[in-house]
Amino acid sequence: MTDTRYLVHGVFWDGVGAFPGTHASTAAHDAGNPVLRLQSPAGGFRQLSLQPHARLGFEVVHPGKSCLGHTVVHSSTRRDHILCAAGAPAVRGKQCERCFVLDESRLMHDFHRGGRVTPGLRDYLMQEHWLYVATFAGGTTKVGTASGPRKWNRLAEQGAAAASYVARARDGRVVRILEDLVTAQAGLTQQVRSAAKAEALLNPLPAAELAAVNTRAAAGARALLATAAVDGFDVVEEQWARPAHAGALHGAAPRHAYPHALDRGRHGFDVSSLSGANALARLDGTDAPFVVNLSQIAARTIVLGEYASAVPALQEALF
Ligand SMILES: [Zn+2]
Description:
Blueprint: E1 6-12, E2 35-39, E3 45-49, E4 54-60, E5 70-73, E6 79-82, H1 97-102, H2 119-125, E7 129-135, E8 141-147, H3 151-158, E9 162-169, H4 172-186, H5 194-200, H6 207-226, E10 233-239, E11 256-257, E12 265-275, E13 278-282, E14 289-293, E15 301-304, H7 315-318
Parallel strand pairs: 11-14
Antiparallel strand pairs: 1-2, 1-15, 2-3, 4-12, 4-15, 5-6, 7-8, 7-9, 9-10, 12-13, 13-14
The structure holds zinc ion (ZN).
């Protein structure tokens, strides 16, 4: 019998969100039900829980990245994930050239500029959307959009330290017009790289400072939107509730960069905190926590196993 080779799709927070005022510590897991999504050779999906204390053990068995397929949007509530027919190497991010071209979710970014969309994608885009301002552990702040049903989940997957909703828009076209406006006039970026988020989590700024940065940026965006000559939206003032599971990663306790490359080798650790796709990992034999950027194993092929990551030899010197 051979070990099953899984293709890693990434970290997903698809569960029910956290809400302001709920006391998360009373629940076994507080919100979002985060998982590492794996694709089996037969095409089925398996979800590995990344809830507090989950154990993750795997070996990266293939040196390159493979295509994750593409998305077809049928309506606001239904979309299909189509596996890569060729099982091709990933050359455009996590996709092969063919799947990149076929991916409908790519088209939604041009819809507000007059781009053509399929009827299913139009149905998806015509639902309510939210505009948010998110601040990350290093203080970088971005503007972004989320569809109504994924209002909370989108920010959980982004791994924000603090975030605020600034507008509720009639549809996905209006929200992207507002997003471009905030970028052009308030200077907020629309993209924060995954590596930058992981780097910032090695030395996160104090929570009060990040909250203040976010409050200021959100207030600036709202003031701008209040005078915008665009129909179909309301300015809103609402906080995003960060999952309690992300708390330790955004806390003040010292931590270290994960010492092993994730494109090869065997890895095993306990997940003690998770923010977006970044985990605070506890390695066997030490209490020192390490930041692991799990987005680095997306599109890689792994075999699951009871492995333990080696504690770096320089551990003494690190403290
Ligand atoms: Zn493909």
